[in-house]
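Please, structure for the following, as tokens.
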Amino acid sequence: ELALRGVIEKGLDAVIVNPTACVGPGDYRPSPMGRVLLDLYAGRLPAIVRGAFDWVDVRDVSATLISAADRGVTGENYLAPGHQAGIRELAGLVEACGGQRAPRWVLPIRVTLALLPLGRALPIGLDPAMFTCESLRAIQNNRRIDGGKARRDLGHCPRPLPQTIRDTCRWFAEAGAVTDRSPDGRHGAAGAPAVRRRTRQHPAGR
């Protein structure tokens, strides 16, 4: 961002859009947050972290980026938040979509930070790819983010978080990242591999 501001000062017509934590369908890799959703869906997280963060649908961010290219003021910075929700609430939304029951144990941030160096060696499995000091402190120090400027200037309009989680879980299921139902009637999930892109078949000669 600092590099971009340097060239904006030299005359580049550009704007900056800063979204919060992006989630949503089309998460092929999957992203760190996509992996968290898959792990919650599969019941692989025996504990979750206490705290909250702001989550925004990647489709709404994409629409805001397109709008910024057309309507944004050169050099302006637009915050593009969604909705603030606790990790426990997020787990409940995933459970409501057919995933495994939300974890019963909720760890305070200070405890999680102290256990972080042990990583995967712990029974609760703190994956260092998903849980870092920076991400945990961001959750600990979460603040409500004002997206008023993006809403006024760019029409930023984040959809409800339950809709985002529902669409994301459905997309993972259709993409094959979610396995068949487990014996208790709930879905499981594959080991969060990269989701294979579906290719469209074209008639010969085209």
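The first helix runs from residue 2 to 8. The two ends are 42 Å apart (CA to CA).
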